[in-house]
Specification:
Membrane topology: Multi-pass membrane protein
Strand content: under 5%
Transmembrane segments: 50-71, 83-104, 116-140, 152-173, 179-197, 233-256, 268-290, 302-322, 342-366, 387-405, 411-429
Order of helices and strands: HHHHHHHHHHHHHHH
CATH class: Mainly Alpha
Protein name: MFS transporter
InterPro entries: MFS, MFS_trans_sf
Pfam family, one: MFS_1
């Protein structure tokens, strides 16, 4: 029996895996239902659509930047399983608000949409960002506490793959079901997530409780400074941050790119996100097989360079795409019958597979390089830096759109950032070899 199969059947891992899977599913069902509805049913301007998509991403990311230090302190100094139960209970209330916003968007188009529905949806999205901020450090930090040392990489890979399988499922539903069904679905999923979270075994703190620092700016600066002095952790965090900045730029561009460049429907925009999610899941599992359970950055530079090349290929296909101005938007069947659809989707899949292979070992670095009593705070510091980088990526996308840079040309920004990630990955592997 493989390590991964063994873990999936273990109570040390399965409840956490299911809880994380349902949370990621709900995030993406809600966010994509909201963004796709607004992009395809409200706006008719490429710049306005890209701007709203970027704003939605920024609203979700902001809590990671502001609250991660507090979340990391809580996770290291309190029982992680208890925090999971509290966070998942809050998700039910959040999704009641978000579901109400989706229903108002569907049935009160006009004044009600701008004055009430969109603010309600963005409020719920921000609250889900808060929810994920407090859950994020736990889902990785709890692994070294519940798993054996030779199981941590496999557990990290399964969590990452499960996350993207959940993103896949949420994205598919968001693109295919009516928005009113999405409103019901997010509430039901929140209830299921609360039930799964109650099954996570206790994970008491490994250090004595210490006073909490509730000064958000001071605690964030101190946490990042205390974490970044470790060279391998610093390099891993910086490499992950560039990866998620690239991901943020790509995810922001998918809906407006599908609509305005490819003349494709929201189902095709959803298909892009599905292919991306499948690819990251494949990459996450593949790197575990290549490394045979050893936490190493050996393949990081090669992986992210391949990711950059696939982004360039994706850009080139978009430039060659022949649009259908004035006609109906292509559905999935019409899209896949286009001559350039196959190379476009294969390029996108390549981006995601290479990205998954790049990022999974780096997360494992963060949980195995530091003492178990500090893992949650290390992940929290990573989240602060990641979210700051992603906000910068979102602002860049908004700025480039305002400067009338087309969405396909913005893809080249992601390709350029891959070079920086490859350099950081190489430095990390060198530091790994020196420490061996």
């Amino acid at each position: 029996m493989t390590t991964s199969t063994h873990l999936v059947h273990s109570r040390r891992f399965l409840p956490l895996f299911v809880t994380q899977l349902l949370g990621a599913f709900n995030d993406n069902l809600f966010k994509n239902a909201m963004v796709l509805y607004v992009v395809y049913s409200v706006y008719s301007s490429e710049a306005a659509e890209a701007k709203f998509s970027a704003i939605a991403s920024g609203v979700f990311i902001l809590p990671f930047f502001v609250l991660s230090a507090l979340a990391g302190q809580l996770a290291d100094m309190r029982d992680k399983a208890r925090i999971i139960r509290i966070v998942k209970a809050c998700e039910i209330g959040i999704m009641l608000v978000g579901g109400a916003g989706l229903l108002l968007a569907r049935y009160r188009y006009g004044l009600g949409l701008d004055a009430l529905a969109i603010p309600l949806m963005l409020t719920a999205l921000f609250a889900m960002g808060v929810h994920s901020t407090f859950f994020g450090p736990i889902k990785y930090a709890i692994l070294p506490q519940h798993l054996h040392e030779d199981e941590v990489l496999a557990g990290t890979g399964l969590v990452e793959a499960g996350t993207y399988i959940a993103i896949l499922a949420g994205t598919i539903l968001a693109g295919w079901i009516p928005v009113e069904w999405a409103a019901i679905g997010v509430v039901v999923t929140a209830v299921l997530g609360w039930f799964a979270g109650r099954q996570v075994p206790p994970a008491p703190p490994l250090i004595d409780a210490q006073p909490m620092d509730f000064h958000l700016v001071r605690s964030s600066i101190r946490l990042v400074a205390d974490t970044m002095h470790h060279r391998r952790v610093f390099l891993a965090i910086m490499a992950i941050s560039f990866f998620w900045t690239i991901g943020a730029v790509l995810f922001i561009q998918f809906p407006p790119l599908a609509k305005n460049v490819l003349d494709a429907s929201k189902e095709v925009a959803s298909l892009f996100l599905v292919v991306f999610s499948v690819g990251v899941a494949i990459g996450s599992m593949s790197i575990n097989a290549l490394l045979k359970g050893t936490v190493s950055a050996r393949y990081a530079p090669f992986s992210v360079i391949m990711m950059g090349l696939f982004i360039v290929a994706f850009y080139a296909v978009c430039r060659l795409w022949t649009g259908h101005p004035g006609g109906a938007l292509l559905d999935v069947a019409g899209f896949v019958s286009e001559p350039l659809a196959a190379p476009l989707l294969l390029s996108l899949l390549g981006i995601a597979v290479a990205g998954g292979m790049f990022v999974v070992p780096l997360y494992a670095f963060l949980t195995t390089t530091v003492p178990k009593s500090q893992t949650a705070r290390t992940i929290a510091a990573n989240n602060i830096v990641n979210s700051g980088a992603m906000v910068i990526g979102s602002l860049l996308a908004v700025g480039l759109s305002a400067a009338h840079v087309t969405v396909q040309d913005q893809l080249l920004l992601g390709a350029a950032m891959c070079l920086v990630s490859a350099w950081l990955g190489r430095l990390l592997f060198q530091a790994e070899c020196e420490a061996a």
